Amino acid sequence: MANTYNLSHESLKGLFGSLRRDGRRILAPVDAAGRVELGEVEAPSQVAADYLQTILSAKEVAFPKVERLLSYTIAPGRVDLKDAEPRALPTVLFGVRPCEAKAFGALDAVFNWDYRDKFFNARMEQLAVIGLSCTKADEACFCTSVGGGPADATGSDILLTPIEGGYLAEVCTEKGAAIRALAPDLFRPGNGVDKAAIAAKVQQAFDQPALTSQLPGMFENEVWADQALRCIGCGACAFVCPTCVCFDIQEEADPKKGERLRCWDSCGFHQFTLHASGHNPREVQGARWRQRVYHKFSYYPERYDMLGCVGCGKCTRACPVDMNLKEHLIEAAGVKA
Amino acid sequence: MSRIGVFTCHCGENIGATVDCVKVAEMCKDIPGVVHSVEYKYMCSDPGQRQMQEAIKEHKLDGVVVAACSPRMHEPTFRRAAGDAGINPYMCEMANLREHCSWVHEKGEATTQKAADLIRVLVEKVKHNEPLHPIKVPVTRTAMVIGGGVGGIQVALDIANGGHKVVLVEKSPSIGGHMSQLSETFPTLDCSQCILTPRMVEAAQHPNITLMTYSEVEKVDGFIGNFKVTVRKKARKLDEHLCTGCGLCIQKCPNKKISDEFNEGLGTRTAIYVPFPQAVPNKPVIDTLNCTYYKTGKCKVCEKMCPTNAIRFDQEDELVTLDIGAIVLATGFKLMKTDAFPEYGYGKHKDIIDGMQFERLASASGPTSGVMKRPSDGRSPETVVFIACSGSRDRAKGVPYCSKICCMYTAKHAMLYKHKVHSGKAYVFYMDIRAAGKDYDEFVRRAIEEDEVKYIRGRVSKIYEEDGKLIVMGADTLMGGEPVVIKADMVVLATAVQSNDRSEELAQTLHVSYDSYGFFAEAHPKLRPVETNTAGIFLAGACQAPRDIPETVAQASGAAAKVVGLFSNEELTREPIVAVVNRQAAPVYSTCVGCFICQGACPYQAIEQEEIMARSGEVIMTLARINPGLCQGCGTCVATCRTKAIDLQGFSNEQLYAELMTL
Amino acid sequence: MRIGYYPGCSLLGSSREFDESARAVLKALGVELVEVPDWNCCGASSAHILNHELSIALPARILALAEQAGISEILAPCAACSNRLLSAQQELEKHPELLPGIEKAIGMPYKGSVKIVNILEVLDRLKVLISVLTTAPFRKKVASYYGCLLVRPPRVVNFDRPEDPQSMDLLLKAVGATPVEWPFKTECCGAAFSVTRTDIVAKLSGKLVQDAVKRGADAIVVACPMCHSNLDLRRAEINEYLQKEYAVPAMFITQVVGLALGLDPKALGLHRHLVPVAFAETAGVQS
Amino acid sequence: MRVLRVPCTGRIDYMMVLKALHKGADGVIVSGCHPNDCHYTSGNYHARRRWMVFKKMMEVMGVDMRRITFSWVSAAEGARWAQLVNEVTDQVRALGPYTEFRQVIGAGIE
Amino acid sequence: MEAVIQRAKELLEQGEVKAVLGYAKGTGSARRPHFARQAGQLDKLVMDEACVQNLAVYVTKHEVKKLGKVAVVALPVTQRAILQLMAERQLRDGSLAILAVDDGAVKELDSASALEEHLALKAQVLNAKDKASLADLEAMDQGQRWAYWQKELSRCMKCYACRNTCPMCYCDHCTMDCNRPQWVPVASHGIGNLEYHMVRTMHLAGRCVECGDCGRACPVGIPVHLLTIGAEETVHELFGQRAGHKAKLDYALSTFKTDDKESFIR
């Protein structure tokens, strides 16, 4: 394993101090009126205690729900264009679960597919992720079925795993090393601990590679329509999902000035693919649900040879009508072509 | 991008005085989409309009904003000019720099800036204007005149002589109105009956006129050119066709002691009666409130006597619905009663009468056959006091306005009295003499100089009865406010002219606006005196404001000319400012979801259901559709519709949104 | 029935008989009078000419005292007093901004919740009882004289018909009297000139007396101390002006009702009149 | 004060009031003919119901309703309209710019 | 609950209905809507206190209409929603078999008039929790209320769960989707969220059956149901009209009384 250390609770407080002194904002899951959401913290004590996950994903840090791309003012006879500089504060994302940490990779795949998205990249450069392994999971989690794991270090610059009196800290990237360099003495040389024993037990629910290969053959299958019969076509699943990248460009202007905004969009919306002619290739909810599954489990692997889903289960928890993705995938996997 | 022309008008000084029009024209050049911006002193003038038309052709403009006065004034003018210049008239909008800017602000930079802002709002609107084409609506070439007085009769005759059908509706059993109650008329003193009755007969016999007397308008639906009017023909309790008007029933009717409305309570009439001898139609009516048969079930003398047994005791009111193209209101006025004057004894003195009662005393067909007899004891009054402005010009009585006709008829009354009682003394208490018509002042001078009517300038503070005399306590302000006490035998109050009974109710039935005194509101006091704000409904006579006979007849002909004008073309072109429910190609067909919540919002029932059929004939969806003929363009449905499926042409969501964006 | 009572200065002074007859009649009708404790002058005809705030503060103090005494309705028999109380109350309602100053001036809180009524209103409420209890009907022809302050200004007083009031006439009918048709019910009697210009009072009140007698009135009935003093006290000047002896007495409505109820004339103060009330029923009572 | 002309109060959509506030207006006057005198019979009756519900909703959302004036003014009441406009402009000027609302307009954008 | 499943099974087997819409166990303690189209899927149906969602949201969906006649397990809120949808002509009599469930008892209704009579039996009661929250809101002053809603609405991301879960929001092309003109900004920034929730509240005033689903559906837990239920109560107070009680459209904002009382119009 990369260099692993022990980090006591005390020294974690010290680490927070040095990070703050280094001018970095620290975002971590906090308790807010019964809900757990990302918030700015000064010390580990402010971080929520025994939470499963935040409701919304951490993608908001790199890909906010509304972002100004450019603005302009209209003066007599001419237009003054002003590019918007992305507001990228040096940030440390603490306490994020391994699945969400991994998700940044999926975002990165799209935002740097061929066009380098200036806004996303600016924020990612300033971002460091200190992941925290899961010690418990619920029915919605299925990270192990999509190549992840409760203590998987992918995507984390440093991965902490809770152990007696503190954490096992694995420094995985240069950014992780840079953080350790801020206060090296806080990191005691670690005695190899079996992470799997501590991490939560997440049973593999289905054979993902088999599903991915099976999907192209079942495009016309009735299963999608049946599953989507109860889907109400809202955008909750897409907006809480750490790997959903779809966005919509909105122009808000009046005769004197205007600005171009990027905001989240969802393939679940009825009008997502509505053509100006009135034709809609994905007319029914079944087609839209199918698109959500195929995008993450068929097109992503095909194009970026990685999955568009990290199995965090946020969509299942957020869905008003309890569309359980794991359950549906198991059902789909079970369908004979 | 549109090519818009802005034409800023000085409107003489109205705008030019406070707004720097040259600067405004300059500033408007910078508005995106404006390719031509000029100013001119009088845009609405002929040269002004021609200048605009040339600019449209020369600069190939497709939108015009005229920054001048209120659209209510000259929108039609400029739209017609724009139309003649080759662009769709509805691509021309007006910015109101007068009422919205120059008239309400001081001269200054901010005012000029506001003027430019207002223009920019309308330029943004014009960018979203769509070419619209007037709606063609069939016109029912039948007019209805409500009110059978001299005004109503004149309107009916003029329209009928114009070759169109007229229905003349009169509330009382006969046409004639108040004029039939008068004795002589000023300023010529010619007998009222003699000049009115021929007109009444002419109206009754005119092939184009249908008389509906003893009838009231109950309900009016529809709109200009297409009114549906429901009239209640009150039961006369006799068959009009069989009755020959011989009058036998009237002579024989035992119940003779009913107070006669026609004679203003001075005379009495029978239960079955004809209002006055020259009544048209000369068909009696049974007064069911006082007729013995309806009280006790006995009598039936009239039925027995009637040679053509035309009496129908069980006759019911009849509701008649008529297709009407235009309506003229000529419902006249009423006089304030004498009991409205506490200072003159709350009406308890019999010998204090109002002007109309004096007319009846003076009229040959009146209760005293024209002989001056005072109501209390029938003696010939030796001293008569006439009090002008009784109730009029008196805020405490709720009538601050001048009733216009009293000065003239008071002089006439004094003159008539002197002609009938040469030895009598006539006094007139007045505030100001308002005799502004032709030969009017000369008439009053004649009363003063030739008939020695004593005019005392002052008010009467109190009248009380003493030893059979009426003690009139007044003051003579020309003699230093000297108290004047006159022992009079009879006092005539020239009471205020008020709107007729239930005029507000009628106005609401016809959706016509009215003022706080119940008079109907004309569309524009100076420029459209005979029209109302409700298209297709016109006004004539005292129902609009106190008015004498010459003016009433003149207005009547004016209103008739408007109606004949309206009927002169086959179809009526209506402003295309109507609401439309959007339609799109299949499979969407429309964003309307067919909830029909809009139907409740439409006062004109203009929203219909349209079933969209598949080729198989199966109904796919039911959508709302607006009948352009009925829609008046108020836009209530547009704001009520949740999915914004309805839009109002001329005030569309996009136009208003664009205007809002530049506020 | 329990009602607040505000006699005012004239009812304890020049028109004591109005107070005595009012108390006697109301007692006979079972009405309990609760006199306003420590009441002060209502400002009468002088205050509102000299000082606006004073003309409100004086009546306001009376009303405030009444409120503290738990009085919800207050009877002020004298027309001038009820007129002043009403206009002060309405002035404070229309201009609440005056309230703090007034409350400071009278040194107590003022709510303005007391309802002010005049003698005719109270008697009118008891009209049925009066006609029942009438043992000696007042078979006389009477001219009912209301004067000015009872009915004017209508906006403030809002009582009966300002030009031709009927309430006293109806009361008189209830006790058996026959009111005459009389046009001078609300003509001016000369009011305060009673002190300074008796000649004008003589002329004005003279006209009233002359016309009343001409219409056959045996008595002129009033409900206001000022009217009574002009018609009674100044009778000498009236007779001199009219060059004729007029003996028609001026009586208070409460005295007429009292007589009708059979009360002792002396208790009604009939002996205090200058113009003797020389009816048979009051034989023996002489001033 | 700037004017937006519509044929009847019935045509006034509450979203127009929201747009006016969105474009930075500190006060809004919503006006039209008196009930019962509506040239279109019932436009203002519907508007009145709409305004009653709209006003309560805005109050629940915490909007400062002193800045929004609803008034019946007929075309004949020129003087009363002038007096109303002056009164409202003074009142809104006294309340000052509606910063509470303005802050929301720019907020929420990264 | 057995009675409902039993009746549903009969309807399905006799072919009277093509599907039965009820509740089934979901992830963890959640309950989810469940379409049973063959008898086999019926045993998944459950009915207990946790089943609260207003299933009427599905009856106007094209996909569900294509299924043919559906039997719906209808709680009181669902019954009211279906009646209101019938009043707004979105459903025709007989297109649904309504299995009305009122605290245990099951009654089969198939026409608007039957539904109206059934609903008239029981008064509609606002649950205590919402009533208390509305009272708290009422108690705040204008500044506090503004701050409260700004804080809550700032978390809104316009996922439209509240709109899409509402049975009364069945419009294919909602005002939010209207871009000519763009009355309400699409982006979920400050003004965008504020105007969206204001317009949604206005659209539900007088039409909301007070089921509270919008509040439950919000992934970030904004109590948006207080807005719509508050507006519905306002309409009831002002005009005495409630949604979902009449078969014939009885919508306060599409009619009027000449003497509607209000105190704020000058």
UniProtKB/TrEMBL annotation, chain A:
Residues covered by the 4Fe-4S ferredoxin-type domain: 221-252, 300-328
Keyword hit for Iron: yes
Cited Pfam families: Fer4_22 (PF17179)
Gene Ontology MF, one: iron-sulfur cluster binding
Keywords from the UniProt entry: Iron, Iron-sulfur, Metal-binding
Protein name: 4Fe-4S dicluster domain-containing protein
Annotated organism of origin: Candidatus Geothrix skivensis
From TrEMBL, chain B:
Molecular-function GO terms, alphabetical: 4 iron, 4 sulfur cluster binding; metal ion binding; oxidoreductase activity
UniProt keyword list: 4Fe-4S, FAD, Flavoprotein, Iron, Iron-sulfur, Metal-binding, Oxidoreductase
Keyword Iron recorded: yes
Pfam families assigned to the protein according to its UniProt record, in alphabetical order: FAD_oxidored (PF12831), Fer4 (PF00037), Fer4_7 (PF12838)
InterPro entries for the chain: 4Fe4S_Fe-S-bd, 4Fe4S_Fe_S_CS, FAD/NAD-bd_sf, HdrA-like
Residue intervals of the 4Fe-4S ferredoxin-type domain: 234-263, 282-316, 583-612, 622-651
Cofactor: FAD
Keyword Cell membrane attached: no
Annotated family: Belongs to the HdrA family.
PANTHER family: COB--COM HETERODISULFIDE REDUCTASE IRON-SULFUR SUBUNIT A (PTHR43498:SF1), FERREDOXIN:COB-COM HETERODISULFIDE REDUCTASE SUBUNIT A (PTHR43498)
Protein name: CoB--CoM heterodisulfide reductase iron-sulfur subunit A family protein
From TrEMBL, chain C:
Species per Swiss-Prot/TrEMBL record: Candidatus Geothrix skivensis
GO molecular function: oxidoreductase activity
Keywords recorded for this protein, A-Z: Oxidoreductase
Positions of the Cysteine-rich domain: 4-84, 142-232
Entry-linked Pfam families: CCG
Protein name: CoB--CoM heterodisulfide reductase iron-sulfur subunit B family protein
UniProtKB/TrEMBL annotation, chain E:
PROSITE patterns per the UniProt record, alphabetical: 4FE4S_FER_1, 4FE4S_FER_2
Keywords, alphabetical: Iron, Iron-sulfur, Metal-binding
Residue intervals of the 4Fe-4S ferredoxin-type domain: 199-229
InterPro entries: 4Fe4S_Fe-S-bd (IPR017896), 4Fe4S_Fe_S_CS (IPR017900)
GO molecular function: iron-sulfur cluster binding; metal ion binding
Protein name as it appears in the record: 4Fe-4S dicluster domain-containing protein
Species name: Candidatus Geothrix skivensis
Biological classification of the source: Bacteria, Pseudomonadati, Acidobacteriota, Holophagae, Holophagales
